[in-house]
Amino acid sequence: MHSEKDDFSFTFNTTNNIGFFSSNRSGNDDIYAAHSICTVEATIIVTNAKTGQVLEGATVTMLDDNKNEVETKITSAGGETVSYLDCNKAYTIQAVKEGYEGGTFEMVPSKGGKTKIDAALRPIEAIITPTEIVLKEINFEFDKSNITREAAFELDKLVQVMKTNKELILFVKSHTDNRGDEKYNMELSQKRAKSTVQYVILKEIDASRITGKGFGESEPKADCQGNCTEGQHAQNRRSEFLIMK
To answer: What percent of the chain clears pLDDT 90, i.e. is strictly above it?
Structure first.
């Protein structure tokens, strides 16, 4: 705060987190405001969810509340990254490592100081069942079929499974809820299935190993007819990744 001029009479308002002081730096005695810089020291610890072992070389990405990337770091030998973030803001943490299912973790707003986030990742085999690959919900923007950042994060798990299991052949089924015109829902689900398949192929998976089809609202998971709750609509608006071979 100090300059080569005469700075004096500093006072700080703890409620509004702002200070005031007098100075003759402009040639006259004037009052200036001083805003404090508040940061949070966030330590992310990435571990194997099955064994508890720390994971070196994992990629940790910090996203702000608009899902914009703030920074990306690689974990140390102790499985840690340290980031200095703005106070009073929420962040989303995405942690990935080859051989493990990528994880998403939330960091609540903090007034400062230090915080630790445990990011436990399951071995990638945990999402494989005898009949399908189980991912979290693949979300699309309303009335759109483009792959969102969140959807890409889930689909990258699928890509990793297919690269590890070279003989795996998958069939993608895309579904909608029953709101809207039946024909339109069928067309929309077909576009979403196509976008999903194309994303995986662009990640260097042979096109012969993955196909897809939209089923619209024809195969609801929650058969609630015209009286569906928002939760049931969400159940029906899904993608399935069936193992064909």
So the answer is: 62
Predicted structure pTM score: 0.71
Give the residue from 188, 175, 173, 180 showing the smallest Cα distance to 236.
175
pLDDT digits (tens, 9 = 90+) for 16-54: 556 665 666 666 666 766 555 789 999 999 999 999 999
The C-alpha atoms of residue 5 and residue 3 are separated, in whole angstroms, by 5
CA-nearest of 148, 84, 153, 143 to 112 is 84
Q: What is the token pair recorded at 219?
A: 């195969």
How far apart CA 196 and CA 151 sit, in angstroms, is: 9
Mean pLDDT, range 237-241, rounded to an integer = 89
As beta bridge partners, residue 21 has 32
Instruction: Give me the DSSP letters along 153-222.
Output: HHHHHHHHHHHHSTT--EEEEE---S-S-HHHHHHHHHHHHHHHHHHHHHTT--GGGEEEEE-TTSS-SS
128-243 maps to which CATH number? 3.30.1330.60
Q: What count of Cα atoms within 13 Å lies in the side-chain half-sphere of residue 166?
A: 0
CATH number of 39-123: 2.60.40.1120
